[in-house]
Amino acid sequence: MGAFAQKQNHPQELLSTGLARPKMPSSGIACSNHLFVNSNRTIGNQAAQQMLRTDAKEPEARLTGAPSVRFGHDFGQVPIHPSAAGTPSTPFISELSHSPGRPLDSDEHGFVEPQSSHNLGQLEVDSDVKAAIQRQDELGTAAPPSQTPSVPAGPIPGQEVQPADTADRGPKLYGLLDHSIQGPLTFAPWAFGVQQEPGIGIYSPKMSAYGTVIADTSVQVAEYEIGFVQALIVSRMTATYIDRNGQAVQYLKIGLSQQPIRDSQKGSKPWSKQQDVRSLDTSYIVETEDTPRNMAPWQTPAPGRIGSLSSAEGTDLFCTWLAARHKRSGEMHYLGWGTWMVDWGSAFDAAKQVGRSTGAGGQKMLGGEKRGPFTPLEGDPTANNSITLQWSSSP
């Protein structure tokens, strides 16, 4: 967390599933590096095939520019996030994913709807999200309808709907977004807060995103740049502190003053990372990386220091978009989206000052074409500047 660290609309496809907190020094941190199995040529061919399937009668399309050289990013300054202090606790995404075939209850509606601006009264919990994702990985095709959440037919409240006669008047740009995250959390020493209290950094596995954009011959490609926009949709983490008898005595709740919220490095507006942006006339491929992190002190604050860090739980949910921006007007065109999450479940030994992952760690979720179910955020504030901390005697 910056504050502490100087912290589809087609049938939905499962994708490898934004940006994150200020980046910690890489020394001593065993963050996983997930590379894409698709070569530049494969991704380009897939994009062309996608465009031809989407609109076979349109003018010839072309790949523009040359593929960018692939390299590993050190994700720079990125923050950490959790839910706003003083607001009701929200159910974990992972909890919603393990309740086969039942409708969302009222509490879950209250959690999901404000984040997505959708009426989810008829939405049922996916019967087996993990099996659907695994099947997608194995077959490389969209999950069958029985494995995807059912949404009422017709326009979704809160979602922008263009008139039929204007829906295709934008530039004929087509994109593919692929991203990957999987693995447990990792841990490293960290100095917490202004007083630089001894603490521990909690790191997500690395999320890698890879986008390909192709343009119809009618598009003046030099007028566009491409990159990624990211938002933190839901965020919360609670650390538990125990006394010498193993009884919980204090809780540290790390959150955000508002959510969803744009997740971006400073000076990158509206992009998540300005250094990942490319002009469409020079490159049709873009890539980015993100390693979200959280952190907590080993002891409760002075005076007293009555508790030691024992465990942590919580979830961050991100949405990442592949987008093209008209350089002169600033108009954004969203070409693909994907969601991913970080489960902050951890256990700690304060005496030895070590931690281990107890939850799902990093996981990809759903994705698809265009902007998807969430609204991209292009303005301020950003997650890095909106982190909140609250010490409490109750969970």
Protein model, in words:
- The protein is mainly β and 395 residues long.
- The chain has one domain.
- Helices cover 11% and strands 34% of the residues.
- The protein has helices at 2-5, 40-54, 93-96, 106-116, 129-139; strands at residues 13-14, 61-62, 173-180, 182-183, 186-192, 197-203, 207-216, 224-242, 248-256, 261-262, 278-279, 285-290, 293-297, 308-326, 332-343, 346-349, 354-357, 362-369, 387-392.
- The strands form three sheets. Strands 1, 4, 8, 9, 10, 11, 14, 15, 16, 17, 18 and 19 form a twelve-stranded antiparallel beta sheet that branches.
- Strand 5 and strand 6 form a beta hairpin.
- The longest helix has 15 residues, at 40-54.
Offer a quick outline of the entry:
With 395 residues, the chain is mainly β.
Give me the secondary-structure topology.
Blueprint: H1 2-5, E1 13-14, H2 40-54, E2 61-62, H3 93-96, H4 106-116, H5 129-139, E3 173-180, E4 182-183, E5 186-192, E6 197-203, E7 207-216, E8 224-242, E9 248-256, E10 261-262, E11 278-279, E12 285-290, E13 293-297, E14 308-326, E15 332-343, E16 346-349, E17 354-357, E18 362-369, E19 387-392
Antiparallel strand pairs: 1-18, 2-7, 3-7, 4-18, 5-6, 6-13, 7-12, 8-9, 8-10, 8-11, 8-14, 9-19, 14-15, 14-16, 15-18, 16-17
For the biggest sheet, the summary is: 12 strands, antiparallel
Q: Cα distance, first to last residue?
A: 21 Å
Shape: elongated
Query: Which residues sit in consecutive blocks of at least 5 with pLDDT less than 50?
Result: 1-167
Per DSSP, the total helix count is 5
Q: Would you count the extended β strands for me?
A: 19
Mean of all residue-level pLDDT scores:
70
Radius of gyration: 21 Å
Q: How many domain modules? A: 1
Fraction of residues in H or I helices: 10-25%
Which class do the helix and strand fractions yield? mainly beta
What fraction of the residues are assigned to beta strands by DSSP?
A: 25-35%
Order of helices and strands: HEHEHHHEEEEEEEEEEEEEEEEE
